[in-house]
Specification:
The chain is 39% helix and 20% strand. The protein has 315 residues and is an alpha/beta fold.
């Protein structure tokens, strides 16, 4: 089936499925809307971790061991910075540093984040459109038993150790969605919207906090398919399961699916888990969701598109 596909994602799991989609779809048929709620300024540089994770994955530059950053990275800059007593808690590899420097001076010169990201896609041979959810700043902040923390303070400096009590997406209500991202969600040839297996609180809900994007998802006639980030009660990577428990939810696929109620037509659970009890107006299905390599990423992409196409055929 032909048509355009839009993926919403952030983080390592989202980047993996984005790569799978990019490998099974023509580049012009894929738009990836990426979370920017964890963007921040560090050492005078503008860092966009989720955009870079997706960019590196689609350019086949990701580090397969760490799951973030570039493969074959060197760390001379960080070692020199640490010797000077600098802020070395957020790791910037030497190759990775180049993208932050290039982004930062271009932003300072007046280019938008989406324009800079488009430059990087072209330079690295990425054919799919990678778009920030907004060119306006949105900041994810975490209410914890240690007080309110900026996202990177919670996630990296404190290694997700404080207990989470609440989350806010500062600036989201007034942020304008990136125009091409909103346009992709309203295309007449839209085949499917895919919500990648990313942390719902930290990677997907910042995107959904933009009112225009949430409205577009509610109104689209295309099927919306979400994939669980939880397998066997735990997250493959990151604090999603811990956050679910601390916020009073069960740590399972059903808890994530319910957060997307009213937006999602199909929710994909891992085939190793039993299907949850039915959720109104949502089709719960199973597929292998653990992406240990490129083959598994491609297969999950194909399964996701098949579920979307089957849903369209029933309408």
């Amino acid at each position: 089936m032909s048509g355009h596909v839009v993926a919403l994602c952030g983080g390592v799991g989202g980047a993996k499925l984005a790569q799978g989609l990019a490998r099974v779809l023509p580049g012009e048929d894929l738009t990836i809307i990426v979370n920017t709620g964890d963007d921040f300024r560090h050492l005078g540089l503008w860092i966009s971790p989720d955009i870079d994770s997706v960019l590196y994955a689609l350019a086949d530059l990701s580090d397969p061991v760490r799951g973030w950053g570039r493969r074959d990275e060197s760390w001379g800059f960080m070692a020199a910075l640490a010797r000077l007593g600098g802020e070395a808690w957020f790791q910037l590899g030497d190759g990775d540093l180049a993208i932050h420097v290039e982004r930062s001076w271009r932003l300072a010169a007046g280019e938008s984040l989406s324009a800079v990201t488009g430059r990087f896609c072209k330079a690295l041979g990425v054919r799919a459109s990678i778009l920030p959810m907004s060119d306006d700043p949105v900041s994810t902040r975490i209410d914890t038993d240690a007080g309110w923390l900026d996202f990177q303070d919670y996630f990296v400096r404190r290694r997700c150790e404080p207990r989470v009590q609440g989350i806010e997406y500062s600036g989201a209500h007034g942020a304008r969605p990136q125009p091409a991202a909103l346009g992709a969600l309203t295309r007449p040839d839209l085949r499917a919207v895919v919500i990648c297996p990313s942390n719902p609180f930290l990677s997907i809900e910042p995107i959904l906090a933009l009112p225009a994007i949430r409205k577009a998802l509610r109104e689209t006639r295309a099927p919306v398919v979400a994939i669980t980030p939880i397998i066997g009660g735990e997250a493959v990577k990151g604090p999603a399961a811990k956050m679910l428990r601390e916020l009073g939810f069960e740590s399972d696929s059903a808890a994530v699916a319910r957060r997307y109620a009213g937006l999602v037509d199909v929710f994909v659970c891992d085939s190793s888990d039993p299907l949850p009890a039915p959720i109104a107006e949502m089709n719960l299905v199973s597929a292998p969701t653990l992406m240990t390599g490129v083959a598994e990423r491609e297969q999950l992409a194909r399964d996701t598109l098949r579920f979307a196409d089957e849903t369209s055929a029933l309408r």
